[in-house]
Write a structure and sequence with these properties.
By secondary structure, this protein is an all-alpha fold. The protein has six helices and no strands. Helix 4 runs parallel beside helix 6 and helix 5 runs antiparallel to helix 6. The protein is globular, with a radius of gyration of 15 Å. Keywords: Membrane, Transmembrane, Transmembrane helix.
Amino acid sequence: MGNLAMNKKSIAAVIILSIVTCGIYYFIWMASTTNQLKMYNEDYNGTSGGMVVLLSIITCGIYGMYWWYQIAKKVTLAQQKAGMPTNDNSILYLILAIFGFGIIGSAILQSDLNNLWDYASMNTANNNPYAQ
């Protein structure tokens, strides 16, 4: 599965790049986050990151609101898989998205993901007798 800590991103960079690029980086982050969680959760039938972005654009953001709810569920599943305490923020993300505060949701989500990747990579290293 590789080094999971490499999936970490700076929360400030996600926010700043999303603002500076007028939302283009936000879509890149959305696709990347979706794909990382798909791989970690071994969800081979789920929607790809590129399709999430395309559907969000085509539906003028309506699918994006659904994505926020679903991505929180996927983070919760990943937290369970990693053996860490779960934190289901699906309703919070949905409310933030509805009122146009997706940027705040992205900061909270990236924080949760950074904690997940740290915990999962630490767990992987501790369970691997060949890890250095």
